[in-house]
Amino acid sequence: MTDxxxxxxxxxxxxxxxxxxxxxxxxxxxxxxxxASSEAAxxxxxxxxxxxxxxxxxxxxxESAYAVLNLYPYNAGHLLVCPYRHVAxxxxxxxxxxxxxxxxxxxxxxxxxxxTSPQGFNLGLNQGQAAGAGIAAHLHQHIxxxxxGDANFMPVIGHTKTMPQLLGDTRExxxxxxxxx
Length: 181
Description:
Strand order of the largest sheet: 1-2-3-5-4
Structural class: alpha+beta
Shape: globular
């Protein structure tokens, strides 16, 4: 008697693993949104401010820096604070840029506490490619809200993050709260 299981030719015997298909991540894996060069003309952080807020996922615009949702977030609400100026090294920021990046980081934390009640934050600058900067040519501060248990079995065992809300909905929620801050 033949096995009547649904199998795709050439795949082999089914195993005990469930599959969570995330085809939207293939663009990140292939580097499709990576800048072609380190020049400002190829930089997404230089291009984003020219978009409208919803399209660019911008939560807040300041004078010398802006807050934007990370297109490939580690956690729901993962924000980036970026200077408008194309600068790669923290020591190259002007005093005004440094002050505004710090102020927007503090404001982002307050807004997230109001809206999503995180129990902690990871804050950081990945300075250079060797330090993990995905886009090393344009400095950006990460603000990652954290909750107890957010590193459950999915990312630990399955190397998969589940996101409870669409980026556009998260942006709307944070931008509305930011305006009230």
